[in-house]
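Practice problem: predict the structure.
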Amino acid sequence: MSGKLYHGAAWYPELWEEEVLRQDIRMMKEAGINVARIGEFAWSTMEPKEGQFDLSLFVKVIGWLKENGIDTVMCTPTPTPPIWYTHGHPERMYVDREGKVMGHGSRQHACTNHPVFREKAALITEQIAKAVGRQQGLVGWQIDNEFKAHVSECMCATCLGEWHGWLEKRYGTVERLNDAWGAQIWSERYEAFEQVPQPGPAPFLHNSSLSTMYQLFSMEKIAEFSDEQAAVIRLHSDAPITHNSSVAFHVDNERLFRNLDFASFDTYATSDNLPAYLINCDLWRNFKRGRDYWIMETSPSYAASLESYASPHPNGYLKAEAVAAYALGAEAFCYWLWRQQRSGCEQPHGSVLSAWGQPTVGYANVREVEEARQAIEEVILGTRPVQAETAVTYSDRAKAFLKTEPHRKLNHRGLMTGFYERLLAMGIHRDLVPEGGELEGYKLLFTPFLPYVSPELTERAMRMAEKGGIWVVGPLSGGRTEEHTVPADCALGPLEALAGVETVFTYPMEGTGSVGQAFGVSAPLSLWSAVFRPLEAQSAGIVEQGLTPGLSFLTERKHGKGKIVLLGSMPEGEEGDQLLRKLVDHYAREAQVTLRTDVSPGTIVAPRRGEDGDVWFVINMDGQGGAVTLPSKAVDALSGAAITPGRLEVGRYEYRVVRFT
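Answer:
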């Protein structure tokens, strides 16, 4: 870590005169802001005419900030290429799936794969890195901003050519592509890579392989663009590099962060949607294991644009949000934005200061965050987040599969958040582990909503089970191949043999009256489902009613000292929630998961560990107050007061820092 916790805001010095900038810096100090993020949309200021560069404003501003004890994260401005790049050049612009060509304005309007864009992006990045890369006060870099937030896969002519090259590299010959995709269907067979289309306008649906592979191609290309910028920066600066991303964007975050130094994200979850906020913390902590993540953007009160606005946070919530972030592994908690914008499309967005320089409705809460940051900083810096014993597999590639095949408009983000919410509510400390992440040290692994389960993940999960762990696979997992086709040997491919079952049927269970019974609970079953006949496995859940009574929707098989569990269907409704909680509890107990508490709903426990022992951050986040049972003697890490074992209560948006003795 840097030796401090950062409390920051996005700032746009190119939009304001010097008098305002000086006022902003004074008020940042008063509010406790110690890092500013600048530059992300300022390309036209930095290069007003093609080839004419002027970085003097940013050199000066970084110096002013440093003089006032405020560090800087410098951004590359590539989301917003200037008019000189776009005007008269429709071939350089992003093209959507309907063939519409974007015009100048807003952001992300250019195709990031166009060779001229890559050239100009590398050049402006080089100029910025040369100008400020060694400047005192620069503590980090952010490449671009929110890749693929407003756009998804580009369908321009440049991308078509890149697509053909990507396919040739992946398959080698067009015959292998045809075989892998089953392209003989509907006479889709190709004779050359140059004939393979993009998944643009079509009378009906495209081949699943075409649609999913094009998404993966797009994800890889945007990550390559990030890699190129990072390589340029590293020639002129030693400051660590990140990108500000989200699970909502059309990127593969695991791939994107592979060649960056730390991970960061933005979130605008409202205060009544805690799982949507916390799931990011538990995931981003694991993209760069051992390196603290940053919350690069969140609102001091509410998000808004010309077309919408969210509910403002209740007073006190922002402090709870920030303490939770720091406790769960964040090095920085930053706002969008510092001073309200007086023009553009986000004029109504929440900010720390108004456009006329006065504190906003969120200002007092920002001050509360700063008081909390100062109070907990020493404890945070002296401890590290404890690795969970329970993990959930997360995959943005699975998101691509479900975008191609959403069944009844299934949403990967919603499915994952709903599953995660149960672990959260049950007080189980959890990690979301990227699909390619290591599983050493975990006792219980859930892998839901992963249509293609790779051999590499399977090997790591089975190795975990061999040592005594339990791997729960499903629902909606394993039913597709890497190329998004249906396995031709059995419904779930290699998983079936490993799990010791035969999949008898796969079909959508909604509306069929299907009811499953497991752990003494009967519940309706839903989603596209698989039902099993156990061969070398034991049935743990039986279909009682519907089309397939007597078959299993839940099985388990011993493997080494542990086991593999297949969940073939998703229980739904109140009874379904009860059944799933029973399932989680059963396998957590069997796996001897100890990192769990009886914390009340709406309150979280974030365990950390240091040389002086274990510390719990207990934070109420729903404004209702909460409680948790302390298992042994402790002291308040902030006041030093003794705390007896037993029930510890926290008030509305209150936090306690408990050090066990």
